[in-house]
Structures are given as structure tokens and as C-alpha cells.
Fold this sequence. Notes:
Elements: H1 2-23, H2 25-34, H3 38-42, E1 45-53, E2 56-61, H4 62-75, E3 78-87, E4 93-102, E5 106-116, E6 119-129
Parallel strand pairs: 1-6
Antiparallel strand pairs: 1-2, 3-4, 4-5, 5-6
Amino acid sequence: MIRSLFLLVISLSSLYRSTAIQADIIDDLSSYFKSSNSKEIAKNFASTIELIIIDEEDVYSKAQGEQILKDFFIKHPPVKTSIFHKINTNPNYRFGVILLSTSKETFRVSITMKKFNTNFLITELRIEPAKD
Length: 132
């Protein structure tokens, strides 16, 4: 009986821990956006990513996506970020909206992630001017 209870507690605690780690991915991405760290953001890209930046939309490789994001940060250096919305209740899907403020304007960054094996990877990244 005690052994069964012990195994139950261990399995539940490991389940909770992995869910908590997965839920933090949007928080991590928000800090990467704030520091304009395109390299760390790109580590979370799927092998191909749909990028929609302002008015340009296409599907890119991971390396191309990183370069495009880097160029965006050069033109629009971030000042601050805040998480506007996040969905982390689905075990195979994550979605987040980050408000990215620059010295000139604010952007709405929408991030769609799907689970591949055990990791969530960004399949779509949309950066558009925030609507007032």
C-alpha cells in the first residue's frame, strides 16, 4: 500500500513538473524578444516556420527565419515586452500574444507552437502593429 502511494506521488510530481516547464515557454520567449535575442528565439523554431512580419508573409527555414527576425530587431529595437495572452491548457499546442514595445511603436507578436516529440516548437510567428 505504501509503495503504491509512493509511486503515485512520484509520478504525479513528475507530471506536474513537466507541465510547469512547458507552460513557461511563452515567458521565456517574451524575455528573448525583450533582449532581441533572435538566436534563442530561433532555437524554438520548427524546421520550417511561417513568418508574417508587418506585411510580408512566407514560409522559411529555421536559419532564414532567424536572419529575418534579426533584421526586424535591427530596425525595431525592443524597449519592453509584456505577455498579453497565453493558452497552455492543451498538451500538444501552445499559443501566446506578446506586446513588444519599441521606441517608436508597439507590435503584437502572436506565437503558435505545436508539440514535436517532447518539445514545443514555433510553427507560426506573426509580428504586426498593435491596434489601439
